Amino acid sequence: MLRENQVTSATDENHDPPGQAESSEASGASPSRITDPKLRMEAKRAFVWAAVIGLLALAIYIAEPLLVIFGAAVFASMIDGGARLLGRVLPIGRGFRVGIVLLLTLIFFYWLVSYAGSQISREAAQLPEIVQGQLVEATSWLRSRGFAVSAGDVQSMLGSVMSGVGTVTRAIGGIFGALATTVLILIIGVYLAAEPKLYERGVSWMLPQNQRPAFAVTIDRMAYTMRRLMAGRLVGMVFEGVFTYLLLSAYGWYTGDAIPMIALLAILTGLLAFIPNLGAVVSGVLMVLVGFSGGTEMGLYTIFVYLLVQNFDGYVVIPMIAKKTVDLAPALVLAAQLIMGLLFGILGLFLADPLLAMIKVALERRAEHNEEADAAALREPPKPQQRPRKQVAAAAKANPDGA
Questions:
Q1: Which residues, at least 6 apart from 220, have a Cβ–Cβ distance to it below 8 Å?
Q2: Residues 279, 127: Cα–Cα separation, whole Å
Q3: Which pLDDT does position 103 carry in this prediction?
Q4: How many Å is the Cα radius of gyration of the chain?
Q5: Which segments of the chain have a pLDDT < 50?
Q6: Phi-psi bin for 304: left (phi > 0), alpha (psi -120 to 50), beta?
Q7: In the prediction, which pLDDT does 29 show?
Q8: What is the pLDDT of residue 152?
Q9: Are 158 and 167 within 8 A, CB to CB?
Q10: Residue ranges of domains in the chain
Q11: Residue 328 in contact with residue 353, Cβ under 8 Å?
Q12: What is d(CA 265, CA 249) in angstroms, rounded to the nearest whole number?
């Protein structure tokens, strides 16, 4: 009896249950494994290229949300710059300083809507009529000089421009609309400005450890450049808006014939100063058209004001700011604005310059990293060339005595 039990237990040990036997058989070599090393290497390369193409396609598909996030980062840099500026005079916590900046911003917009809103709304209602009237007069003047221009051509041109503006405006927010996009930018920007290091650590955590120090330097330099760029942009906007208002008001003080819509023109000039190159052209055209609605002298004076403001801003204010920020070539900025405006509408037009500045900082950091690597390679002594193990073994076998 004892003999039978021993035989039975031995049999049970040598034979697994059906499920376990199937799993052990299934855990062998995979039929999808590539045994050829060269073919396996090519398959890995193909997988990497497919992943890169997939990521590019995904980035293109979600390009507008990514642009909204970048717009929030730009807004956060403005808040962060104001908080750092307050930190020089107020030794309080960062959260309180960010709150003060946001409160001052809300107070400014409340004043703009409450006190200047009614006047600006009336002037804004009159602006399209004045612009259209001036275009009709310009068409009549051209026809009197022999140019074959009809009022229908002007109307069709205005319709094309307005339809294009509507198209790019709808492209700002996609499904949510322009208002929802603005709200998203403001909310995300406030969160980024409140705890910037938190999100920086999160992005750094996803990188390999050997690349984290270089990433920290790059992101710090990008943040510094963005703060300086936005601070300079705000200074230029305030300067152009205030200077335009004072000069246009001086005409009425001196002649007694006030230029219409001074407040609206000053605000538009200041806001459009955020867009380099194109903003100055648009604000200048509007200013000159409104000026000629009051006569030739008023129109010539608005041309003088426009040239004075833009030249002083271009030759004095902007060079002083560019020395402390990224100095971008005007043609490069204009090309980026055209591309971003065509792809993403008004939002892309506003963010083309900051995006181009960040790309330039990233490329400069990459060039510095390559220079450091080349310098380190030149400082290292050359390593002695070692023979492969097979050659060493063959030499030892051929000369066992070491002679």
A1: none
A2: 17
A3: 92
A4: 34
A5: 1-16, 19-26, 161-176, 403
A6: alpha
A7: 55
A8: 60
A9: no
A10: 63-363
A11: yes
A12: 11
